Amino acid sequence: MKKRFRVVLGLLTAIGIGASSITAMASDVPGRWEMESGPCLNPYMTKEAEVNFGDTGTDITEEDGTKAVGLVKGEYIKFDDVKFDQGMKKIEITAKTYAPTAIVVRRDREDGRVLAKFKIKDTQGKYEKFSVETDDIAEKNKIFFVCTVGDCAIDSWRAITKEEVEIAEQTVTEEPEVTEEPEVTEEPTVIEEPAVTEEPENTENPEQPENVDPYVENEAEDLTNAGAFQEGRITYAYISERRVLVAHNVNFEQGLSSISLKTRTRYDNATIEVYVDDTKGTPIARTLASKYDFRTSCAYVSSKVSGVHDVYFVANNEIDFDEWSAMPSADYFQ
To answer: Which of 112, 215, 315, 333 is the most buried (most CB within 10 A)?
Structure first.
């Protein structure tokens, strides 16, 4: 199916039918594309695996007419220009397997950042639905379904939003039926247990969370809400406009003049802003993320900071975040 569609597009272009005509034809396919700065794939409606933007697997047509893509270890299916404008909480696939199988969903390329991992039982050649929680994602992206273990065939997939998951979880639990206890004719003998003396609560020295030293290199994956992602020897966190990362109890006993952030992104003008104690008001520092490769940038602080604070890292787009550190104030060195 996908090869025939590509050939038709090529012929239409060759005979002079413009891009607007091709767009109009594509828009006749319900749920396939949405128009905003070019055609985009809508992931919240079921997407057929065989209608993809490239794969290294095998096209399959079942006896009942079901079309799918067969994958073995190392093979993948790719989808371009997928617009996750509502984010993603879970991802669902319809697939069959012939042995225990693992499928990894990745962003941008076949060895890119992991969004989700499916571990699927042997379905003995029967198609079943499977869903797993995913890392959040936003805006337009490429995604890859990569078979890393086993042998499978993928029929379709779709993204599930946080709102859809919450609605599904709002089920009404019925009261369990009460079974009457049998009547007791004789009072059982009650053996009193010795009284337990409770230890008095320690109100003078309650346990306090350990302070964070900002003047050493701190791993971003240790921040609250961060998560950890692996690429070669680098472990890093993920930050976006939907995910704010927090460092609690940061002790700026030496003051603060600047903050260094090691980041990378694939977007232009992607920035990280740094706030103290909450995300309201004006950030104390702001810096652009490095394009494509991890690099360290220095954000100079615009206000005086000292003492123990919670530090918030806020981004305006998707950024991979490796580590951060602070430089003492100029007064500390005098």
So the answer is: 315
